[in-house]
Amino acid sequence: MRFAFYGTNIMKQRTIKNTVALEGIGLQTGSRTRLTFKGSSAGSGIEFVRTDLADRPSLNLRSIDLTGSASRERRTALSIGPMEIQTIEHLLAALSGLSIDNIIVELDNVELPGLDGSALSFTEAIKKAGIVEQDEPRKVLKIEEPIWVREKDSFLGVFPGEGFNVSYTLSYERPALGTQYFSADITEENFVKEIAPARTFCLEEEAAELLKRGLGKGANYENTLVMGKSGPLNNKLRFPNEPVRHKVLDLIGDLYLLGMKIEGNVVAIKSGHKLNMEMVKKLRR
Predict the structure, then answer these.
(1) N or C: which terminus of the chain carries fewer CB neighbours within 10 A?
(2) Domain coordinates in residue numbering, the chain
(3) CATH topology classification for 9-138
(4) Distance CA 9, CA 63 (A)
(5) Quick check: is 246 catalytic?
(6) pLDDT at 175 over 90
(7) Number of Cβ within a 10 Å radius of residue 134
């Protein structure tokens, strides 16, 4: 693997033009959080700032040591010292899909808002702020040899290839889910139309159990697809295979923990946040 400029046409780094804010309830903690997005200089990377903590601690994806960070149940979290941020994968997916290299994300609570359970609102807020190119070329991680991680029947591999392609296979015994497959070249247009609107989901029998364990306090039938025997309860699918598209969304977001895009082909079978994080750590090594 090596760092490289993207293809023969050197792409410029990008940030946002104007400050923009949004707020909502965290899916797991139920806490209300306000996010403020601010543009930042070329080469500065993606930086999170906890404005509710003393001295406003921050962490930057390009410099953070992921050793002490891990996936939490049903979400991805980062921590450094007393600072932690949770459920960051949907925002990171939006930043990756829109090719935002440099941005400051201020938040006043531990968990990012769940909003509608997808990356759509994050995507719309970033586009509303305006996207501008910067003077420095973008770096990507070019995959030159296969690398993979696996656990039981779950697999995640990254292989050499042009551009950024993600293929995902989801498999559940429940008929409403069954086996679903989705594959796409992840361009900005494809991400906005085909992936960003896909919402998170859980099985009907999981919902009560998650609440018993102190999770899902901010979840409801609107921001989470609760899958019953024949389909989502009190809701309708945005895509016939919306669950697998959301898995692709999560994977794109988790891989952006690298702080830069990958040039290569990503193949996933039943991969979740834990395996995604293992891949990121392996790519960093």
Answers:
(1) C
(2) 9-138
(3) Ribosomal Protein S5; domain 2 (3.30.230)
(4) 27
(5) no
(6) no
(7) 18
